[in-house]
Amino acid sequence: MKKNGTMMQYFEWYLPAGMLWKQIAEQAEELKNNGITALWIPPPYKGSSGIKDVGYAVYDLYDLGEFDQKGTVPTKYGTKDELLAAIQAAHQHGMQVYADIVLDHKMGADATETVAAKEYNPENRNEQEGASKEVTVWTHFTFPGRNKKYSDFEWHWNDFVAIDWDEKRDEKGIFKFRGKEWQENVDGELGNYDYLMGADIDLNNPDVVEELTKWGYWFLKTTDVDGFRLDAVKHMEFTFYRDWLETLRKEVKEELFSVGEYWQSDYNALKNYIETTEGTLSLFDVPLHFKFSEASNQGNKFDMRTIFDGTLTKDDPLRSVTFVDNHDTQPGQSLESWVQDWFKPLAYALTLLRAEGYPCVFYGDYYGIPHNNIQPKKDMLVPLLKARELYAYGEQHDYFDHANTIGWTREGDDEHEGSGLAVVLTNGSSGDKVMYVGKKFAGHQFRDYTGNRTELVAIGEDGNGKFPVNGGSVSVWVDKKD
Known about the structure:
By secondary structure, the chain is of the alpha/beta class. It has 3 domains: 7-103 and 207-390, Glycosidases (TIM Barrel), CATH 3.20.20; 106-204, Elongation Factor Tu (Ef-tu), domain 3, CATH 2.40.30; 396-479, Immunoglobulin-like (Sandwich). Helix content is 23%, strand content 26%. It is built from 10 helices and 24 strands. The protein has an 8-stranded parallel beta barrel. It has a 6-stranded antiparallel sheet with strand order 6-11-9-10-7-8, with no helix packed on it. Strand 17 (396-399) and strand 18 (405-410) form a beta hairpin. The longest helix is centred in the middle third of the chain and has 18 residues, at 206-223. It is elongated and about 80 Å long. It starts with 6 loop residues before the first strand and ends with a strand. The mean pLDDT is 97. Residues 5-388 form the Glycosyl hydrolase family 13 catalytic domain. It is an enzyme of class 3 (hydrolase).
């Protein structure tokens, strides 16, 4: 029997070092029992800050916590053996694992090189500032601690397009190297958003593409992960991941779920990326996250009927991965846009209990974020996760007909015994909504699976029930018989 899939982003920004891979192995059974079917794990390779690196300042893609580099053998999350044990534990409990992949840039080079470069305006990457000059840049990666194990590829300045630091002058800027051009098929923000940070990898260099493809083979065969979360795709030649994924699917794993992070509130940019990549990968529904953030800040002034307007989930649900918050939106981070606590149950109901989208639950919501004194919301999340696993099946009927109070029902199906539900939520005062759950439930009584309401709702002969909800809350009604 196929159950609804639910992903969990299994990290937040401020985790202590050395615990995550071991915790996955310890928690795998509980996570599976609570309805999680896949884990998105952080970048598992050595970063330039060693034991403190969250993983996005990539140093050595081949060092999964195996070599003494950047002052440590383990990564922030543990050793290579602990990583492999965590993946194996997830698999043993029927969960998939998606690894966070960062192929946009590298940091922490082992030596400098001198190259002619032109400086560009950070606010308009098409505008050159001054004449060409020689710069000293950190672009020579030799990985001495690994000593050519797995790959003898050394990175030089010609494998990159640009960098943001001139060691010669002790100067910050955007320096594009001699003979290099910005990749054309990238996001148009700041004129051309090819350059993000560090040493910007040149995806027009065939030697680089060959090495990254070889690494992809090696990584999949070494770790046995089931898919990828792809970082910063709007900064990378759009066709790169299309071709890279197609090659890996053909050669290594046919089923290789992949979701890209394209951080843009304008849905049209996401649509363009999906069309350009020919639907090779899904995208996180960033516009929906911003809707949640906006709704949580506006309170009862936000029109809940519009919550899905201008979102990927509404237009292309099969390519949409929905989320409420993540490591970038959490307090103190670069894209902070935290959804307020009062709205979290509503947002998670909207992602977990509807037919559209592949939902992702955030570690920081499930376990809390001690660094910011954010308390765990596990007690709120587990009933919604279990409701998704057990009841959220069958034909969907929407009741988005009130500015504050909206709802929907799922009629259930024969494959999932006892399935079917009614969801009603509001950003205003308490109320109720008459909704159709199906004539097969005629004469039955429904209970609130969240426990927010204690009464029972009788289903009439016509398959309708009158479902109440508390103010600023959500209720999930299921058949009492189940």
